[in-house]
């Protein structure tokens, strides 16, 4: 008897609404604060950065928010994304577990990021915006916003973290192919970038620095807004189409997950796969274990402090309560560039505080080892970021093997690694090492957290 491997939804069954977990949380997430007054921010405070419709999504507690038809029309180029059963990986591991993965690498940009890039570009164009400025780590987000900008006629400028800019030249080439301009950060194009370079001319960069540069440019012109690829509530909202589709596909397979695994950097792909299932459990349905996997070199959930902090190094953004390593923290230059952010999405952080998820950290060499095992059995070469989810899923499958349990495991394979082969070459040459952050730098960054009364 042949075993079904992939589960495909017809375009007509693509979700028409995003899911907002804020409607179902037992307690609301802490307010976003103005850094000057320490009072909750209002729409006017965010208006220089975002169009009003995205601001309203940021604060909404409505359970379902309709996906505009122009956005769904673009989504149809790759959505619904396939769900796969990893039969060959299961056999290689000798596990009784059933492993499923939602594959987001089928998008034009090769990752989950267009799910929100397309939505953000649509709302900005609708508001009359002409230019979007953003940051990117490994380049997944910058590539996606460049693609979305091309579709909606928007100029896109991207500040890419210097170490990734140097490691991944083909990502830069793809951004330029879509029409975006890509600059290494820290750069000489902003006041903040120049101040960083004056102190450290060879600074490797960080997402916090790149965010500061993008925000600085965004507020200088009325025709320009800022776009963020993770962390914020409206970004996580747009990604929930991943989990909503997975729910329907697992029903096609007559399965429901016992464990859900996702890699976490800022939190968007993790929230995309996990939030619909967490919400289902909060409303009385089955509650799977939810496992967030992060890099040991930038472990905000496992080593960070749950506190109010700035979202950027230059301290230009509002204060959000999140698991943070400190906005002044610069992680080492490990290859999963998209997982280098100092903080975790406030909603993901809040869910962890509520006990709705657990977190684990792995080093990059063991994650690449897991990615290679996955590729040799399933055929897809995962992005370095996604290797963390692969590692987490394999760890769960091996636990099932030890315990003799046939759990159903679902993970999000959030992107392919076709532009990351230099990292794989280093792995095979034995040149890829586990990067470790400086404990003293972490202590200093945490000591510099803003003082916010309890």
From TrEMBL:
Alphabetized Gene3D superfamilies for the sequence: 3.40.50.1100
Amino-acid biosynthesis found in the keyword field: yes
Full protein name: Tryptophan synthase beta chain
Matching SUPFAM superfamilies: Tryptophan synthase beta subunit-like PLP-dependent enzymes
Keyword RNA-binding in record: no
Cofactors: pyridoxal 5'-phosphate
Function comment: The beta subunit is responsible for the synthesis of L-tryptophan from indole and L-serine.
Keywords: Amino-acid biosynthesis, Aromatic amino acid biosynthesis, Lyase, Pyridoxal phosphate, Tryptophan biosynthesis
EC number: 4.2.1.20
Domain of life of the organism encoding this protein: Bacteria
Source lineage: Bacteria, Pseudomonadati, Pseudomonadota, Betaproteobacteria, Burkholderiales
Record note on quaternary structure: Tetramer of two alpha and two beta chains.
Pathway info: Amino-acid biosynthesis; L-tryptophan biosynthesis; L-tryptophan from chorismate: step 5/5
Family of the protein in this entry: Belongs to the TrpB family.
Cellular component terms (Gene Ontology): cytoplasm
Domain Tryptophan synthase beta chain-like PALP: 77-415
InterPro entries xrefs: Trp_synth_b-like, Trp_synth_b_CS, Trp_synth_beta/beta-like, TrpB-like_PALP, TrpB-like_PALP_sf
């Amino acid at each position: 008897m042949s075993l079904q491997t992939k589960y495909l939804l017809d375009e007509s069954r693509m979700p028409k609404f995003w899911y907002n977990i804020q409607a179902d949380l037992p307690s609301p997430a802490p307010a976003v604060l103005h850094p000057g007054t320490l009072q909750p921010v209002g729409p006017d405070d965010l208006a220089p950065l975002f169009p009003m419709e995205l601001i309203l999504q940021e604060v909404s507690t409505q359970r379902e928010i309709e996906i505009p038809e122009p956005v769904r029309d673009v989504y149809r180029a790759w959505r619904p994304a396939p769900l796969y059963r990893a039969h060959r990986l299961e056999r290689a591991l000798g596990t009784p577990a059933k492993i499923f993965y939602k594959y987001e690498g089928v998008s034009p940009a090769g990752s989950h990021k267009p799910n929100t890039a397309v939505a953000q570009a649509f709302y900005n164009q609708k508001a009359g915006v002409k230019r979007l400025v953003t940051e990117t780590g490994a380049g997944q987000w910058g590539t996606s916003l460049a693609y979305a900008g091309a579709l909606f006629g928007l100029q896109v400028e991207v500040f890419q973290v210097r170490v990734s800019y140097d490691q991944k030249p083909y990502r830069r080439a793809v951004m330029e192919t879509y029409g975006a301009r890509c600059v290494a950060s820290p750069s000489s194009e902003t006041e903040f970038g120049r101040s960083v370079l004056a102190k450290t001319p060879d600074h490797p960069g960080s997402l916090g620095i790149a965010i500061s540069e993008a925000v600085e440019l965004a507020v200088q012109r009325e025709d320009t807004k800022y776009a963020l690829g993770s962390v914020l509530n409206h970004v996580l909202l747009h990604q929930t189409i991943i989990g909503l589709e997975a729910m329907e596909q697992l029903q096609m397979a007559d399965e429901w997950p016992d464990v859900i695994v996702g890699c976490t950097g800022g939190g968007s792909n993790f929230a995309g796969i996990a939030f619909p299932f967490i919400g289902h459990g909060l409303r009385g349905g089955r509650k799977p274990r939810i496992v967030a996997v992060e890099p040991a070199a930038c472990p905000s959930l496992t080593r960070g402090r749950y506190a109010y902090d700035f979202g950027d190094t230059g301290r230009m953004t509002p204060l959000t309560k999140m698991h943070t390593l400190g906005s002044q923290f610069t992680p080492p230059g490990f290859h999963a560039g998209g997982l280098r952010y100092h903080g975790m999405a406030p909603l993901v952080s809040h869910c962890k505080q509520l006990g709705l998820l657990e977190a684990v950290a792995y080093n990059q060499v063991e994650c690449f080892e897991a990615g290679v095992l996955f590729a040799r059995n399933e055929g897809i070469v995962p992005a370095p970021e996604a290797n963390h989810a692969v590692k987490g899923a394999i760890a769960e499958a091996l636990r099932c093997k030890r315990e003799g349990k046939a759990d159903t495991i679902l993970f999000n394979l959030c992107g392919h690694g076709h532009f990351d082969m230099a990292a794989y070459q280093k792995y095979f040459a034995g040149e890829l090492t586990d990067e470790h952050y400086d404990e003293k730098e972490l202590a200093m960054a945490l000591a510099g957290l803003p003082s916010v009364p309890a």
